């Protein structure tokens, strides 16, 4: 098995970070509508 290169490691870490950020954001929302609004606000910056 080949060792991942730096770009692959960075991509994996970025995806994991994004996933955890969304999970934490979802935990702090009362409902799906609030979550959707927060994601829209976060991605429109």
Gap between N and C termini: 39 Å
Structural class given helices, strands, pairing?
A: mainly alpha
Number of DSSP helices?
Answer: 2
Low-confidence segments: none
Reading the helices and strands in chain order gives: HH
Give the rounded overall mean pLDDT: 94
- Rg over CA atoms, rounded to whole Å, is 14 Å
Give the number of DSSP strands. Answer: 0
What share of residues are in beta strands?
under 5%
Helix content: over 70%
Sketch the major β-sheet: none
Mass-distribution shape: elongated
Could you name the key traits of this structure?
single chain, 45 residues, mainly alpha
Structural commentary:
By secondary structure, this protein is an all-alpha fold. It has 2 helices and no strands. The longest helix has 22 residues, at 6-27.
List the helices and strands and how they pair.
Blueprint: H1 6-27, H2 32-43
Task: Briefly characterize the structure.
The chain has 45 residues and is an all-alpha fold. 76% of the residues lie in helices and 0% in strands.
